[in-house]
Prior knowledge:
2 domains; single chain
Amino acid sequence: MAVTIPFRRELDFSYGTSAEIMPGVRRVIAQNPSPFTLYGTGTYILGTGKVAVIDPGPADEAHIQAIVDALEGETVSHVLVTHTHMDHSPGCRLLKAHYDAPTYAYGPHGAGKLEQGVPVEEGGDMEFEPDELIRNGDVLEGGDWSVECVYTPGHTSNHMCFQLREQKALFTGDHVMGWSTSIISPPDGDMESYIASLNLLLDRDDEVYWPTHGPAIEDPKAHVQAFIAHRQEREEQILKCIDDGVHIIVEMVPLMYVDTPEFMYAAAARSVFAAVEYMVKRGELRTDGEVNLEAAYYRV
């Protein structure tokens, strides 16, 4: 039986305006819609007076101005970055022109992999360097808000979620979204880390998730459990492909992603590769040469 994920895509919003989405939390959505961002990047503002900004978004002057307009008479004390894809962190540099607030992140693009000696050279905001490094369990405090840092590598190796402790609201970046699953693209993306990070969330007491893209997730644990089951189902599909004589990832994708438009196949192949890489690591699959996107894979 196919896994059913309770996706939600409906969202009532206007570009360039700030909306209070729950007490002490505002959101401004950038006008950068795409198949990877849904309606665009949602920048969150925590607190009042001296606020924190989560994910300033792309290098879009209009979006940054909308954030500044929303904060008239207020100041920014912290800029929090979930990760360093181009729709999340480049806006930090533009926001610096308005507020001299430090940026907080796990590290630059690829930081989690660089610690393991794995180079990551593309696919992100290579100019971003956080002013302050943060780690899992760190607590940041502002005037009327406090945030716990929750390290969730997988989508990227430097991905960090942030819990607004006063509301038990977790800002999940691209780790868990309500409208879509996340693309896991090696070498920076890592399926083993991603599954571990999903399991980490099951042990927490968060009451609502606010992803950077799309609507809130109001039943977090059920959603995360569905995501884990979905990845297990993808592994079963890979094994079926191999049993049916399909051993190359690019040939598996059309069979596995039957409802996905063809222009998304390249991204889907990256996530299949991440799953295959994890299955090889667990000793379930093998290849005759290097583990890469073009190799042929077989059951062990």
